[in-house]
Amino acid sequence: MKPITDLHDLLINELKILYAIEAEELNELTQFIFKIKNEELKLILQSRKDRTKIQIIRLEEALILLGERPSKIKESKFLKIHFEETKNILKIITELSVVEAQIILCFQTISHIEIASYGTLLSFAKIMNMNEVASLLEKSLNEEKKSDLQLTILGEYKINEDARVETFISLGYMF
Fold it and tell me: Contact, 14 vs 133, CB < 8 A?
C-alpha cells in the first residue's frame, strides 16, 4: 500500500474507499428491493440505485481528474459486514413492516457514512482548489442528503407507524 503523505493522497485514498462503498451498495440494493412490499419505499430505493450508478461515474471522473485509475479500488469491508448483519437480522424478523424498517435503517446508516465522506472530501477538494472534483462531490453529497431525508420521512410517517402497530398487536395490546 502506498503511503499517504499529504491531503492530496488522503483525498485519493478516501475516494477509492467511497467508490468501493458505492459499488457494494449498488450490488446489494436489488436484493433488498425485492424484500419490500411498500411501493413508496421500492421507488425510493430504485431511485437510490439509479443515483448510485451516477455517483460511481462521478467518483470515476474525480479519480481520473486526480490522475488515478478507478479500476484500482479497495474493498469495503465495513459494508460487507453491515449488509451481512442486516441480512441476518432480516432472517429473524417476522413482520413485513419491521423488515421494511430494518431496510430503512440499513440504508440510512450507509447514507450517513456517505454524507460524512462526501462532505469531508468536498472540503478537501475545495481547500486544494480542485474545483472540478469539488463540483462532482457536491452533486453526490446533495443527492445523499435528499435520499436520507426521503427515507426519514417515509420511516417516520408510514413504515415505523406500521411497525409500531404490528408490535402492539404481537404483544397483545388492543386498540
Answer: no
What does the pLDDT look like over 77-105, one tens digit per residue? 888 899 999 999 999 998 889 999 999 99
Go through the domains of the chain in sequence order and give each one's CATH number: 7-170 (1.20.1260.10)
Q: Give the angle 46-50-56 at the CA atoms, nearest 5°.
A: 135
Of 101, 94, 91, whose CA–CA distance to 36 is shortest? 101
Which residue matches cell numbers 421507488? 43
Separation of first and last alpha carbons in the chain: 60
- pTM to 2 decimal places: 0.91
